[in-house]
Amino acid sequence: MSLSSVHGTLSSLKTCQTDIGTGMDTITDVALDLVETQGNSHVLSMEAMILECAKLDREINNFVDVMKQATSEISTQNLESMVNLSTKAKELFRDRMSRLSDADLQNHPKVVAFKDNIQNSSSQGNQNAEENSDEMDDEITVTQTQVNLTCPLTKMVNPVKNKKCSHNYDQEAILSLITNKQKQKKTCCCPVVGCANSDVRQMDLVPDQVLRRMIQSQKRQGTKT
């Protein structure tokens, strides 16, 4: 084994993390489907699934960090140094994982997004149920159009929600704005007019799959008409 093979393995693990993230988004989508059709009866089991994915994602993150730390201290690629690398990495990984708590998984961005989306979907469902009992379908349509499906920057394609101010943006557009501001050594203000949030950060953004589904539904309705 050589350092180059170690780096290759770490690169593969990072690719796996992308697949894990996609899987977590799929779990959220399935959970939203279940909430819409069957209520909240399956939410806990879906939450358990997404927490398992978050745990695996966290383990990969920590393993990659540990390996980077260990390999940075290796100056040669002889057999003895590689054996020492393996031993040191295992010790560092065990020590780091022993200090982690499953409660920390609740702060994983995808877990936070899952809970926000489920809560928003449930709230939307309750609101629609109340409206259905008092108003006709055309009144409901008017109410639904009040939801802001647009991005203050560009066309809304992949919506994310800011945990600080609760405003929505297209993911690519807001990340581009944040990057440009960082290059200028400035903070990124929320682009929504009148918002007081003067420091939009990538860590504050979570996928808004409820809004994405609403946008997709609106597109399907537009296609039918």
From TrEMBL:
Keywords: Metal-binding, Nucleus, Transferase, Ubl conjugation pathway, Zinc, Zinc-finger. One of its GO terms (cellular component) is nucleus. Pathway: Protein modification; protein sumoylation. One of its GO terms (molecular function) is zinc ion binding. GO terms for biological process: double-strand break repair via homologous recombination; protein sumoylation. Pfam families: zf-Nse (PF11789). InterPro entries: Nse2(Mms21), Znf_MIZ, Znf_RING/FYVE/PHD. Residues 119-128 have a biased composition (Low complexity). It is found in: Nucleus. CDD domains: SPL-RING_NSE2. Residues 114-137 are annotated as: Disordered. Residues 136-220 form the SP-RING-type domain. The keyword Nucleus applies. Belongs to the NSE2 family. PANTHER family: E3 SUMO-PROTEIN LIGASE NSE2 (PTHR21330). This is E3 SUMO-protein ligase NSE2. The gene is nsmce2.
